[in-house]
């Protein structure tokens, strides 16, 4: 038997398995996924590598083969099943095996760091008092002491509890088991408005929730592990449905992973899971130290927890018997990695679920076009929740046509209707949110008189203004001269849209001097806890108006907000990207969803230069199906995903001329190895044409079949390897990219 090792050096030439002899003292001790130390290269330098398998026949002469030196002591082994997943990722997304292995191992080194742990109370006041009385009646003094302290403080330092209150680890463990408290290694989540009381209640599911849960449970019982998409409007009770599905899986002795975008990982959400699953829930997120994350992963692999909640990388939690993966807000961009391998968590979760015979549940109020499309083709199973759990109505939406405002002589950023409604809220002492849509801003040119936007004649995406006065298409490289008058109506009000949150804040203060205003953007949240502070201040009623970018629209519940104003709905509509319409629809629906979450009904004003656009029309009616029909027709017509697949090949090099020549060769080669079904576009110059003196070129390939694009990728990887002598460029692959380059 020989050991197959992937060397821990990222280089295309070394991206293959190297065989090593297993020395006597390691026989029977090696397992797939372990990190080992081996002699490598001519000088036999001690190098780290991962064991990915065993083979019986030597690939090279046995006397040339070297021996493994030892198992790397301080390292964490990769689970054998995750090694398989890494192999899948490498094939599906490109890059080297070592990059893929490192991706499935989010915590690489063991760490003995001492944790500062604390005890967090999970019970509300009433429940807690009842508990306390119970412990007292049973004469359980230590438990009662701890319960009383938790009721006073809500959170206790672990060390303090054991030393000062003389509580043993057993007592803490017992209360954790009973769902009274959670042991946390740090304050981990955002805490805008805690209301512990209202979730102590039992709920009975709505008929729609029942139907979704039943379907899942029946399939699961018959070992039909499928992919489900829960399309449910905000507040329709998706989270309750996930939790019940998870309970079902956990009852069968299996575990679950819940992916939530980091920005939506709020205190309330996490608490809901704690209440249902007690101490057998764990969280992982980017602001934890390596030691804390190591601990959580360790607990998972030892079977000490059943549910792991976290952002993208939590997908690689090494559970012994994974039974379910849930992806909440599955349409979010953050599920796509921007580092090689550029994997999408949704697809990778599907691959992991298949490897481990688990189910996958996706959920969103505004599903990605990909997922909804797969429901139509029968690949996924669609579960719909069309009503809110408490039957609250959705907010009333008004659309303000900013072209008309301009024609009437209103040049301010506020339409008359938004102005009036803001004033009304201030008089009634209710809160408002102003959302400035700056996502995907890539310098498009539009007319404020008629709404016309200059687009690429070949790609039907908007052109971007570059500093040299030219308008450029980021897909095909098409260029034209910028204009001074509108080609459609002749107006001079044509140009880029410029307005920042800071300017909006000043304008609001000028118009409404008495209003208390908070602003949330990259500037005001840069400082530590800046984000939490603003959210918390606003939720405690310390301001009347919150102004912000997309940061303010995600997942926060502000019951006193009754008005949401969307200032530049069009901004994301014209990012020069085929996903612009989808992104706009999602943002508008989410932003609108912030209004009227409490007792009072909400209102929304969408300001736009293009009220006819289907994304805006559908969003104002909160009509996903109408949006989907239009958008999928566009994608099919233009051959964009999910109708076809798109592969972006990013080429980089330090010498501009050389890169241009090499990109030419690469295109020629690509044409030679591509079948007729592949359309090749470019090479084009990306919006950012140079980073740190490294030049960039981009080639796009379109094809109905994903597999064919993978073939091309494999050919190109070989081509680069063989010709690395004279082609001094690097390539990266991005399948179905979320962002343009
Ligand atoms: P979503 O995840 O779709 O936004 P949630 O699961 O957060 O929806 O539900 C919204 C609110 O309604 C939560 O406070 C939740 O506890 C409550 N809720 C959900 N389902 C029910 C139900 N069947 N009965 C009572 N309340 C419910
Ligand atoms: Zn174009
Ligand atoms: Zn015009």
Instruction: Report low-confidence residues grouped into runs of 5 or more.
Output: 187-200
Q: Given this structure, which CATH class of the largest domain is correct? A: Alpha Beta
Distance between the termini: 46 Å
Class derived from helix and strand content: alpha/beta
Oligomeric organization of the protein chains: single chain
**Average pLDDT number:** 87
Gyration radius (Cα, Å) is 28 Å
**Main sheet?**
7 strands, parallel
For the largest sheet, list the strands in their spatial order.
Answer: 11-12-10-13-14-9-15
- The number of domains is 5
The named CATH superfamily of the largest domain: P-loop containing nucleotide triphosphate hydrolases
CATH level-two architecture of the largest domain: 3-Layer(aba) Sandwich
In short:
This protein is of the alpha/beta class and 741 residues long. The chain is built from 21 helices and 31 strands. The strands form seven sheets. It has a seven-stranded parallel β-sheet, sandwiched between helices.
Report on this structure.
The structure is a single chain. With 741 residues, the chain is α/β, with parallel strands linked by helices. Helices cover 33% and strands 21% of the residues. The chain has 21 helices and 31 strands. A hairpin with a 6-residue loop joins strand 20 and strand 21. The longest helix is centred in the last third of the chain and has 18 residues. It is globular and about 90 Å long. It starts with a strand and ends in a 6-residue tail after the last strand. The structure holds adenosine-5'-diphosphate (ADP) and zinc ion (2 copies).
